[in-house]
Amino acid sequence: MTDHSQTPPPGGTFTLAGRPVPRIGYGMGQLTRRAAAGGASGVEDAVALLRRAYDLGVRHFDTAQFYGGGLANSLLRQAFSAQRDEIVLATKAGAAPSDGPMPLTAAQRPHELRAAVEDNLAALGTDRLDVVNLRRMDFLPGLIAEGDQVVPLQDQLAELVALREEGKVVEIGISHITLEQLEAAVPVGLACVQNIYHLLGRADEPLLDLCRTHDIAWIPYFPLGGGGAYADIPKVTDDPVVQEVAQALGATPTQVGLAWQLQHAPITMLIPGTGSIDHLLENTAAGELVIPADAMARLDALAPPAG
């Protein structure tokens, strides 16, 4: 792989896993689905796309062992076995594949979190996970924990802290949480928070503010809305104001939606996923887009934060 150490970091940097990391990263979900549908050539194309992302300055890759039954982690291992120390591998615990009507099931108990960490370590071929995000299941959208899967947050965090002390996990993140849960988790020492948040939906602004206070990375998922069958969320790119701002700036609505996130909060890190080189270029170029103050004010007014 070509040396791209001088490639400007897309979107600037923020600290993750103890080092400055480009604020535009990459989420593995879409790519994994495309690779799975494409067979051997799909896997080859997916590995090539990941290497192109690296060439563009992307260093933060968000994955999960349950993405594609381990395919996501296999793709990362194939793409970056020689660059392991140069990338940040962030994965998830709290869910597991299922053969039932839903592709996933809850795996919230502490021993299941440990098993998820061990499975990710083995699949990625690494001795440590840079970030493990605990995915809670207390409210919609997504699965709701029931029965013995209803586990106190502090019990889960204690297991992740133990894994951190063992050196298997570098930093702990937390996902799909309430403000009260974030307040309870902060003393553990968090690297990041992953919640649904986008230009047209800012109900979690209080969580973002708390992250800002504690220098915790804010990593929104569905940063452009949407969500498909998982969640019925308005698409940022369909909004007329977003489209007008994009036209005025010679950018795309996608780039405006991503650039708004970056400018709105310097602690924000993005993980847009794609199976397309063209969209990859579009996403990383969003880190260079500067939205003027008057346009930011128009965008901010689309969905004032709660409270």
From TrEMBL:
Q: Which UniProt keywords apply?
A: Oxidoreductase
Instruction: Decide whether keyword rRNA processing is in the record.
Output: no
* Residue intervals of the NADP-dependent oxidoreductase domain: 23-302
Q: What is this protein called?
A: Aldo/keto reductase
Organism whose genome encodes this protein: Luteipulveratus flavus
